[in-house]
Amino acid sequence: MQELIEKGQKYLMNTYGRLPIVLEKGKGNVVQDVQGKEYLDFLGGIAVNALGHCPEQMVAEIARQSKKIIHCSNYYWTKEQIDLAELLVENSCGDKAFFANSGAEANEGAIKLARIWAHKNFNAGKNKILTLNGSFHGRTLATLTATGQESFHQYFSPLLQGIDYVDADLAEISKKIDETVCGILVEPVQGEGGVNVLPVDFMQGLEKLCNENKILLICDEVQSGIGRTGKFFAYEHSGIRPDIITCAKALGGGLPIGAFLAKDSVASAFAPGDHGSTFGGNPFVCGVAQTIVKIICQKDFLQNVQESGEYFRKKIGELDNDKVKEIRGLGLMIGVELTEPIAKEVMKKAVTQGLLFCTCGSQTLRFLPALNVTKQEVDKAVEILGKIL
Ligand code: PLP
Description:
single chain; 389 residues; 13 helices; 19% strand; binds pyridoxal-5'-phosphate
């Protein structure tokens, strides 16, 4: 294993603080390293492996679709892309979809759509996007700028113009709103920022502010979407209807795909040539993503996600450990804030004990297991966590 890691250090750019294991196989919520050691995977590729590793339906669809058609240009229509768009639209308040390849790309597209909508319906000066302090929206230059955490900005200036930051406080947001603002981009549950659930009254107040000021409400559901919180999209918990919704991660169950959905009145600002992607919406990934989405939309699936999340949170609570300060989250997007900045240390220890999860900041542990995780798996994960804490 050490030899492989050294080879990786020789040939790969040093952008990830990787843990010292090399993974080789996975089934359900269990992954195996090259030495055959097993780990319970409660990180799930950071909310990507919606149905666990190599679920049978997905593997079968990959085989079937790869024999049919893998890629063709967006110069042409494909049934797979059209059907996936229909599925997403039928399960959201959006009317039209655009497919990209990642979360950051979906957010880039959403920012472009907000700007072109404002430009065509109002004027070119209405182009500012507000985002929240503590947010995370991606690593491309526009989404990096949109990310409301300075630590991500260092070394990459000049950043994109026309982005401003504000606290998750309606009065503060109201003060920032003027005729130059065209959109507000928020994660209904902030992931990287610490698994912070934005309160229902905040989300409802934000929708009202946006409507009153002719500003688009854009929900970044890259991490919280596609069933993660026990609703298909997390914005549904507050009963609002955002103008643009972005998603990615779980949508492909592990294949790269991102998407943004928008109301007709907004999406209609785009005309041919205004946006595009070579790989985005290719029939292979869209065919597989349909399989994932159809399973998540089956009767009782989302109810189970809610129940598993409640069970998980209850079990962590029962540890009654004085190092646990707060348990946050919705569905199976769970953050455990500790009383001390030892999150990385706990995560590293957990790896040696056969449990994978990640951290947000120095004090919060983040758990994003597959949406079909079992109670036995939750019990086992909590037992390991309890021993470490
Ligand atoms: N938006 C949110 C809320 C995310 O959590 C992430 C990734 O963690 C992104 C955007 C960026 O997604 P990607 O890494 O697929 O570009």
